Amino acid sequence: MLRISDLDRPQVLHELISKGTVDRNDVTEDVYESWKAMESTVGKLALENAFNEYLTGQCSPRTSTLVKSILETKSKEEKYESVKMEKLPNYELRVNSHESTNPLLLGVDTVAQSAGYFDINEEDKHLFYWFFESRNDPKNDPIILWLNGGPGCSSMTGLFFELGPSSINGTSLTPIYNPFSWNNNASVIFLEQPVGVGYSYASSSSVTSSKVAAQDVYAFLELFFTKFNFYSKNNFVIAGESYAGHYIPSIASEILSHPDRSFELTSLMIGNGLTDSLIQYAWYGPMACNATLSGYKQLISDEECEKIDTMYGRCKRLIQACYNSQTALTCLPANLYCERIMGPFEATGLNYYDIRTTCDAGTDLCYTALDYVDQYLNLPEVMLTLGAEVDKYTGCDDTVFRNFIFSGDEPKPFQQFIAEVLDANLPVLIYAGDKDYICNWLGNLAWTEALEWKDSLSYQEADFKPWISNIDGDSAGLVKTNGQFTFARVFEAGHMVPYDQPSNALDMVNRWIAGDYSFA
């Protein structure tokens, strides 16, 4: 998950404010004070201009000078096989079919692969995907859709940095085989969404909320399973991390709203996600200050811990106002204020994706290996082979991030969609590396225990039990489950569990897709 502090704060304050004027009678005192403070900081006119941009949807979408020429010539060159559905006339799946755009040529894996674009033609939006068949039994193995977070970070991060068939050699910029890839026993789709992420792009429109993004993903899945209809009866799992704690519940709810769907959702997996902001923010203090609860050590001074406690009081009121209204008017101030709670931890210089370390020098997102992924995916031969239709690949897109902040999407509640999924008798796994700070395991455990659904009591009363890996016999973590709703604390892992604990992450996914929801 990105933070506003990952960007230039003065610039963000000028660009992200989505309301320019606030009537004192329309909002709570906390919201009003937050708005007046922002108005004083950036100026009333800047706020009004930003609000007008938000209302008109003119949010500087990702564009490409290559797009026009490629789209004009694609039919002549027959670069793609086109897939459409009568019930979704505005959508199209383009599957690379030209001999020069065969992803097998890149040597990322030897299994059958497919890459291409999913087009929302009326809105001129184009989402890139890359699909890998299972290394085991693709005819019968489950299908996993993997989504990274941000908002605005590419799922190619998951592919090359975490759980895909290969990582990237930083010297030669060539693939390195990953024996712990999640496609060992499942076929995996890596989808770059929302539009504007990675190789995805739009000419004139943008996506500003998880709800709209979910509608696009549902349509993609319909066309994907139409093209690859021999997979439509396989088990289908949606998995992801970080801001996917917003995406996945929204997508699942959207899928369940379509009883005529051509595929069946089997289960969900969310790793170190942001799902219930009201509860998650309450646990930044204990994670940094209470060694008994966190299982690590105190990371900041007692004085700074008291500051966090004080700030959370106001943060809680602001997020509750956001939960009640779910509008940008109340949610954006909550987002901007509550981010300050992470300030004392940030001042330590530690990596908020892994509290045991500091960030690699000279990197934007703390890991040098992520820079290698960016460099590899910007190689001309890689872009050509994948049929990329953008000038440049960017691992995390600032514009997408800002657009989501504009809409107040981040502090909104998404846990209610998890309850909907559970009430539909579908299993859900929430897993969390216990050395992550930004979406820490304490907060994730707390919201799962607070969630109300039909069998919530049996989950709340369940005890933690040891999780011993079937791969190497190591103690991988602790698991709490009622057989349908499962929480897994992953030992010695940060925000990106498959990166820190590749073997244990593979054991986890192998169990889950095999139906071992209790990690027995």
UniProtKB/TrEMBL annotation:
<keyword id="KW-0121">Carboxypeptidase</keyword>
<dbReference type="InterPro" id="IPR018202">
    <property type="entry name" value="Ser_caboxypep_ser_AS"/>
</dbReference>
<comment type="similarity">
    <text>Belongs to the peptidase S10 family.</text>
</comment>
<keyword id="KW-0378">Hydrolase</keyword>
<dbReference type="GO" id="GO:0006508">
    <property type="term" value="P:proteolysis"/>
</dbReference>
<protein>
    <recommendedName>
        <fullName>Carboxypeptidase</fullName>
        <ecNumber>3.4.16.-</ecNumber>
    </recommendedName>
</protein>
<keyword id="KW-0325">Glycoprotein</keyword>
<dbReference type="InterPro" id="IPR029058">
    <property type="entry name" value="AB_hydrolase_fold"/>
</dbReference>
<keyword id="KW-0732">Signal</keyword>
<dbReference type="InterPro" id="IPR001563">
    <property type="entry name" value="Peptidase_S10"/>
</dbReference>
<dbReference type="Pfam" id="PF00450">
    <property type="entry name" value="Peptidase_S10"/>
</dbReference>
<dbReference type="GO" id="GO:0000324">
    <property type="term" value="C:fungal-type vacuole"/>
</dbReference>
<dbReference type="GO" id="GO:0004185">
    <property type="term" value="F:serine-type carboxypeptidase activity"/>
</dbReference>
<keyword id="KW-0645">Protease</keyword>
